Amino acid sequence: MITRADAIIVGGGIHGCSTALHLCLRGLRPVLIEKDYAGRHASGVNAGGVRQLARHIAEIPLSIRSMDIWENIGDLLDDDCDFDNHGQVLVAENEEELDACRDRVAELNRHGFTHEELISAAELRRLVPAVAETCPGGIVSRRDGVANPARTTTAFRRKAGRLGATVREGVAATNIRQENGLWRVDAGGETFEAPILVNAAGAWAGRIAADLGEPVPMKAVAPMLMITSRVPDFIKPVVILRGRKLSFKQFRNGTVLIGGGHLGTPYPETNETVLDWAKLHESAETVFALFAVMRNATIVRAWAGIEARMEDDLPVVSRSSKHEGLYHQFGFSLHGFQLGPGTGAVMAEMITTGKTNTPINDLAIDRFTGRSAV
Amino acid sequence: MTPARDEYDVAVIGAGPAGLAAAALTAKAGLSTLLLDENQGPGGQVWRAITTTPVQDKTLLGKDYWAGKELVEDLRKSGAEILQGATVWSLDRNLEIGISVGGGACLIKAKRVIIATGALERPFPIPGWTLPGVMTAGAAQTVLKSSGLLPEGRTVIAGQGPLLWLLSAQILRMGGKIDLVLDTTDKRNYRRALPHAAAFITSPYFLKGLAMMREVRRKTRVVSGVTSLVASGEGHVESLSFEAKGKKTTVPVDVLLLHQGVVPNVNLAMSAGVKHHWDDIQLCWAPELDGKAETSVPGVHIAGDGAGIGGALAAVARGRVVARAAIDALKPDAGASLPSAADLKTAVAKAEKGRLFLDLLFRPTKQFRIPSDDTIVCRCEEVTAQDIRDSVAVGATGPNQLKAYRRAGMGPCQGRLCGLTVTELMAEARSKTPEEIGYYRLRAPVKPIMLSELARLPKTDEATKAVVR
Ligand SMILES: Cc1cc2nc3c(=O)[nH]c(=O)nc-3n(C[C@H](O)[C@H](O)[C@H](O)COP(=O)(O)OP(=O)(O)OC[C@H]3O[C@@H](n4cnc5c(N)ncnc54)[C@H](O)[C@@H]3O)c2cc1C
């Protein structure tokens, strides 16, 4: 028996779940298929950074749309997702880096974006007292913050379910095909069909796109994070160093999350990752050198998540360049958590109205596949 | 002190019976062998402090304890490099091992890894088990062996299993006082175990076990058939209520020692990606092993209680089987002068004889494994049984999602004190099997390491190259 739905979404990360929820809000009945459980991969294990700061211009409009949703996330999901907005700060460690910050802010201003502000040494010290005396300034994005990733993704999944989405967890979407103008997908013992198919399969999405005739330069990567034992409160905003691979934040309970984009090895076929301790050592070395309060901390846990990275580090958010009714939403390249709420809203808008006011042209799949008929 | 080299033929993790036996054999065969153990001296849990214990009167800790000495001496003569006080915090599928020792950390590699990290006590989540004054029998035994200290004040020991009786006997022999032993063994277990008694009667444990139980019964009051336990007190345990044969009793208590058997310590193996399955008889996770005790991660073997509870004698025998497998793989010529693989396996079978009888007899009952209401399950994050049932009701399907709902298992113990309870509780709440529910996904470091240690990690040539690339 084939079950009919309004849309089939493959992948229960924050993106698939957000699109499911926003389709429900627009009156559709989607089915969401997740091979493990919602939030099992990148969306549930990321650093939780809700950051507009330091984004590529092409994705800033999407990021700003997302931010508006984040600020009222409790109303949307009936769950505050542990969202805190103490800002995110990019630290320049020397004059040269500060010059680059100055150029960046000027460029954003030319495009009409004002969320990034250049800050002086004094303002930097006020925001992040623990930072080294020698740092001459940086950039702040004041509306930014953090949320609990697993909790957020789960909250999207639950709310979508409450509003009428059919959620299947623990079954992979297989045998994805178009028959009689409808998309059909097998999931466990069931088959679903719908006029719309959304490919939100994260690190597995490249394969799905390729199988449907739209190969893209995407690979699976495994960004790593570590969390420490509790240390006295010393920092409120999220801090990113401009010149090194390091970002960190302190949670309300005192633990500190250390990240920055060092990569381990992913094994997407088996859902496994292997950590690279030589690189985690580098992060530890930097934190140790810069922050005296961290010197007695212990590392309690380290992990990596499996994430999709595009060759140009920009996501694919668009309709297919080949097939009617097919949409792509993947390749978030280490910064897609913040984009989840807004991208779901934009996708639902495109699916139901055929267009969106949020400029996302530079994120279309045809930048790789070439323009074509659809 | 740090490892002498970057790479070994064999790294053995854990210097209990299995690790001691395995390392001695591989080293004697001429394989470069590193034995790593986090305690200050060798011996593991059964032979803890074997080289340093102040309790020198041999009758007090018993003959089985002192048997460990010979293995330690054997190992010392074998040429294995032995690092005590060395905590292994990471192992991965590339057989890279992260070690903390003497305030520093380092990474080494091995061609074969033998995990011999033994067992942990099964969680015993009764109401009040988190009160100060309540501890596990194993913890009490550790103190007793390493410093000769006995519990002070009104002492009650509750639970079941061989260690319960052994500890009681040891405390009493050393002049300690036990006010009451509460035996929670389910009466029905005797019937279930009986068909397997023949094998047990001829096992070396039978007579010893019987003698020990008699000794304890002679010296202190034992109540059997206990079906419920509730500890209470303000800021410290003050009383214990229990029920036996339908009769409720409350006794005052200063020290409550709990124990209901041991289960494999799976953390390191699981974090390395070793596949495990649910053992329905021992009610715990056990690694999937082939005939050479090799796991699903090529080159990683498990010996001793970590491979499924078998006791000290079986651990020694299993350690030798694994060592032999490593020797056959790395230096086949050296095998000729060693006992044959077949003989080693026979020794394992002999040592495991009667195990099924013990497993069935001491299989803990449900009410002591799957708590109800407000009983705390996850001590680190103070999550109760009811919290977990509530999370299931709103959609949590397994232990890893519970982390998102409740932070259960995210504390410093990394699930060692709650993991089994959480799996069984969620299985019950969802009418699934524990196998279907699964376990926490475990992450390195499996033991916390200092940020400063990681910051000072020496760069190996290979690591430097990797970073440059
Ligand atoms: C360690 C780490 C730290 C990060 N930090 C940040 C941060 O601070 N801020 C930020 O904005 N971003 C961050 N990111 C990036 C962010 O997590 C991701 O970009 C984002 O979560 C991607 O969401 P997704 O829904 O596309 O992918 P995923 O969360 O990976 O979801 C895709 C889902 O699809 C499922 N799936 C795949 N194939 C199938 C199939 N055939 N059938 C059914 N289901 C299938 C998968 O199981 C998976 O659950 C980080 C990522 C990592 C790994």
From TrEMBL, chain A:
Name a GO molecular-function annotation.
oxidoreductase activity
- Organism's domain of life? Bacteria
Annotated signal sequence is none
Q: Does the keyword Membrane apply?
A: no
- Domain called FAD dependent oxidoreductase: residue spans: 6-350
Keywords attached to this Swiss-Prot or TrEMBL record, sorted alphabetically, are: Oxidoreductase
A UniProt-annotated Pfam family:
DAO
User: Could you tell me which InterPro entries the record lists for this protein?
Assistant: FAD-dep_OxRdtase, FAD/NAD-bd_sf
Supply the Gene3D superfamilies for this chain. D-Amino Acid Oxidase, subunit A, domain 2, FAD/NAD(P)-binding domain
Q: Which GO terms describe its cellular component?
A: cytoplasm
Q: PANTHER family of this UniProt entry?
A: FAD-DEPENDENT OXIDOREDUCTASE DOMAIN-CONTAINING PROTEIN 1 (PTHR13847:SF287), SARCOSINE DEHYDROGENASE-RELATED (PTHR13847)
**Know the name of this protein?**
FAD-dependent oxidoreductase
Q: Which organism is it from?
A: Paramesorhizobium deserti
UniProtKB/TrEMBL annotation, chain B:
Task: Indicate the segments forming the FAD/NAD(P)-binding domain, all copies.
Answer: 8-317
> Single GO molecular-function term?
oxidoreductase activity
InterPro entries associated with the record: BFD-like_2Fe2S-bd_dom, BFD-like_2Fe2S-bd_dom_sf, FAD/NAD-bd_sf, FAD/NAD-binding_dom, Metab_Enz_Cyan_OpOx_G3PDH, Opine_Oxase_asu/HCN_bsu
Quote the SUPFAM superfamilies the UniProt record gives.
Answer: FAD/NAD(P)-binding domain (SSF51905)
Name the record gives this protein: FAD/NAD(P)-binding oxidoreductase
Source superkingdom: Bacteria
Keywords annotated in UniProt: Oxidoreductase
Where does the BFD-like [2Fe-2S]-binding domain lie? Answer: 376-428
